[in-house]
Amino acid sequence: MAKRKGSAAGSVRVVLRPSETMPTYDPAKPDARLRDFVRLLARQAARKFVEAERERASRDHLPD
Fold it and tell me: How many CA atoms are closer than 13 Å to the CA of 6, on its beta-carbon side?
């Protein structure tokens, strides 16, 4: 293993510059990525709900 010389930087400064290709944020318009994410979460929640209801219905069924 290599020996450390203690020459590592104590802190790092990160400067973010907006990309030329990235669309600017407009608060008047809904963010399409956020809208798609919310739809994905809603579909997952609906799927889990339906599965739970099916399981509950099968448990509530009396055997013949």
Answer: 0
Q: Where are the domains of the chain?
A: 29-64
Q: What is the separation of C-alpha 51 from the centre of its chain, rounded to a whole number of angstroms?
A: 22
Q: Residue 3: what residue type?
A: K
In the numeric block, which tokens belong to residue 2?
Answer: 């290599």
Q: How does pLDDT run across 16-55, given as a tens digit for each residue? A: 787 777 777 788 888 888 999 999 999 999 999 999 999 9
Query: What SS3 state is found at 55?
Result: helix
> What's the Cα-to-Cα distance from 52 to each of 17, 31, 39, 47, 64, rounded to whole Å?
47, 32, 20, 9, 23
pTM: 0.51
